[in-house]
Amino acid sequence: MSIDLDHIRQVFDEADCLFTREQVDSAIEHMAADISETLAEKNPLVFAVMNGGLVFAGKLLTHLHFPLESSYMHATRYRNTTRGGELDWKVPPAQDLKDRHVLIVDDILDEGHTLSAIVEHCKAAGAAEVLTAVLVDKKHDRKAHPGQKCDFTGLICEDRYIFGSGMDYQGYWRNAPGIYALKGH
Ligand SMILES: O=P(O)(O)OC[C@H]1O[C@H](OP(=O)(O)OP(=O)(O)O)[C@H](O)[C@@H]1O
Ligand SMILES: Nc1nc2[nH]cnc2c(=O)[nH]1
Predict the structure, then answer these.
(1) ipTM of this model?
(2) Ligand 2 centroid vs 20 CA: distance in angstroms?
(3) pLDDT of residue 86
């Protein structure tokens, strides 16, 4: 399928900036301080959830000044579309999670199905503790579990389709430095 790059550029030009790069970076620094308080002595295993968690995890890791191991897992529900479906495990965690303190780092808590499934997977694999960190929590009443929250949350956004800071629009604009909302969504 050929992609219309003029459309991709137009989407960025017409989007609303919800958070600037500076606001995103400041939220990540605050989260890093909270995460450090909780996990500095726990020798944690920190997982980025691909693809969306890549940018946030990369920035966050450089603010964590204590011994940790970092890795990735790849689970997806949206496959470059704007609506969620079944969870599809591309790459489950490769490490032995038994008795480990695990931190899952992802870009967004939307309906929460993705993180719920990942947390259950890690618990079933024997982790001592599974904590979650997301850059953005989307505000609406469609969470998989009513009142569902992550252990560490950077920003709260309105109920619109967003991209930037790791989040995509049709596979593009994960590289945009702030957080943007699609026009009309
Ligand atoms: O809370 P939920 O409604 O389950 O949605 C959140 C998930 O959706 C996105 O992943 P996606 O499946 O789009 O894959 P990607 O990370 O490769 O963009 C995002 O990165 C989260 O992992
Ligand atoms: N890019 C992107 N991915 C998502 N996954 C779940 N919600 C969203 C969203 O608003 N934007």
Answers:
(1) 0.98
(2) 17
(3) 74
